[in-house]
Specification:
Length: 171
């Protein structure tokens, strides 16, 4: 779990705004909803990995200010949190999401706002960065974290054959 979450942290490293005092990161977690049986350990793995990155000096020397919220796997709550995290002066640099419902609901928002959104969803609707498959709209800011053959990869399309090893430079 920690290795998967470190891949998420690598994606977050790509989204770092210049000269930020702390890097604001949103973290949607299902700790009480329909997928909480797997959401709880996933959320803990994400929290542990992000805390580890901060303990090691952050991203490019900047610590992350992570707001983790249990949204209970409720799409309206996920949308409200997205609007909160993107509507103010302290706009998040990236969001660590969770499941298919929130990822699909927020895909158009993150594409429009150009905010990287990392989740565990493998849904076809959000895993095609260019829309070339013809089965879904382009989702260039949706990223999924996967494990394949012992390599940790983070990319936005399992079907695109563009999976690559992510090296965040984090020890």
């Amino acid at each position: 779990m920690l290795r998967l979450s470190l891949a998420s942290a690598a994606i977050l490293a790509l989204a770092v705004p210049a000269l930020a005092a702390e890097i604001p990161i949103g973290h949607l977690a299902d700790q009480s909803g329909a997928t909480s049986d797997v959401g709880v350990p996933y959320a803990q793995g994400v929290a542990d990995a992000l805390a580890y990155v901060n303990r090691k000096g952050g991203i490019k020397g900047e610590k992350m200010n992570v707001e983790s919220v249990d949204y209970g796997y409720q799409v309206p709550r996920a949308v409200a949190l997205y609007k909160k995290w993107t509507g103010g002066r302290d706009k998040v640099a990236a969001i660590q999401g969770w499941g298919t419902a929130d990822t699909e609901a927020l895909s158009a928002f993150v594409t429009k706002d150009e905010i990287p959104y990392i989740s565990g969803s493998y849904a076809a609707q959000v895993s095609d960065p260019t829309g070339a498959s013809g089965k879904a709209k382009a989702a260039p800011y949706n990223f999924l974290v996967l494990r394949h053959s012992g390599l940790i990869g983070a990319h936005s399309s399992p079907a695109s054959k563009s999976a690559s090893r992510v090296d965040s430079g984090i020890p």
